[in-house]
Amino acid sequence: MRPLLQGSGVALVTPFHADLSIDWAAFDRLLAHTGPGSDFAVIAGTTGESATLRHGEKHALLQAARRHTAWAGKPLVLGLGGNDTEALLAEIAETDFAGVSAILSVTPYYNKPSIRGLVQHYQMLADAAPVPVIIYNVPGRTGVNLGAAAVEELAQHPNIAGLKEASADLMQWQHQALRVPQDFCLLAGDDGLAPAMLALGGCGVIGVMPNVVPGLFGQMVRAARAGHIAEAFALHRSYLKPNLNDALYAEGNPVGIKAALEAAGICHATVRPPLAEASAGLKATLAQMLEEVNMQAQALEALAG
């Protein structure tokens, strides 16, 4: 059996107006921009500012993506995570999952549960969810780390279909890859390490970068998955060399990627509090870097052609 999700996945931002309401015209532009180069999308995930989205807003974002022609037939993943298991079970019961291929659920943050507590949390979600669950491990933001033994145990649950791994620990990633079934989705969750993670057993990526350079990022993922590692790293260097990846996180996520999208003319850089909009200096830096990346991408295309 094939993994449920494969290839280049984009963790979509949620564009806002200055008054902090959702900018639907900008979201339409973002869907049109990302669809052709991406294989699947995450809506209302942490990059989509899920912590400050209302339940009705998540549903409306999902419906907008379902209707968009650029996303016809492509899997849509709904972000649904938090640190109150009972509240998540209630949200699952209230959610319309029509058109949803899977749930992406971040490990509970701040509470710092034990591994046993984390395993129990995910098993309860998977028992209740009408669609498969993808675990999201990002210790730098949650304070807990889901190691290989816990992933191996959770992979036995019939409704837990994969893992997004963002620990930046390549040894942990390899141990996880050795312990899970072949049809379990191993998804890189760190754009900077994506080619290496794909070469070490990943079937795809859920990235922030493809919001702004979906075609280039998608090419890199396809090359890596085909075993063309030199080509993948050449594409990777085209956005790594100007240090675009690091700059995107200089003032937090999705602060940087929204500033880059503003420079690209897709949406405003507005974020909801407690996040603060990117500084003028970061905006200028990202605009310059994005121009460099686009020039390098054009050069690579000319060589390929």
SSE diagram, text form:
Elements lengths: L6 E5 L12 H11 L5 E4 L11 H13 L8 E4 L5 H10 L7 E5 L8 H14 L4 E5 L1 H4 L5 H7 L5 E6 L4 H10 L5 E4 L5 H6 L4 E4 L6 H12 L3 H12 L3 H5 L6 H9 L16 H25 L1
Parallel strand pairs: 1-2, 1-8, 2-3, 3-4, 4-5, 5-6, 6-7, 7-8
Helix pairs in contact: 3-4, 4-6, 6-7, 9-10, 12-13
Structure report:
The structure is a single chain. This protein is 45% helix and 12% strand. It has 305 residues and is an alpha/beta fold. An 8-stranded parallel beta barrel has the order 1-2-3-4-5-6-7-8. The longest helix has 25 residues, at 280-304.
* Total DSSP E strands: 8
CATH superfamily (homologous) name: Aldolase class I
The side-by-side strand order for the widest beta sheet comes to: 1-2-3-4-5-6-7-8
**CATH class descriptor:** Alpha Beta
Order of helices and strands: EHEHEHEHEHHEHEHEHHHHH
**CATH architecture assignment:** Alpha-Beta Barrel
The poorly predicted ranges are none
Give the tags:
single chain, alpha/beta, TIM Barrel, 12% strand
Summarize, please.
The protein is built from 13 helices and eight strands. By secondary structure, the protein is of the alpha/beta class. 47% of the residues are buried.
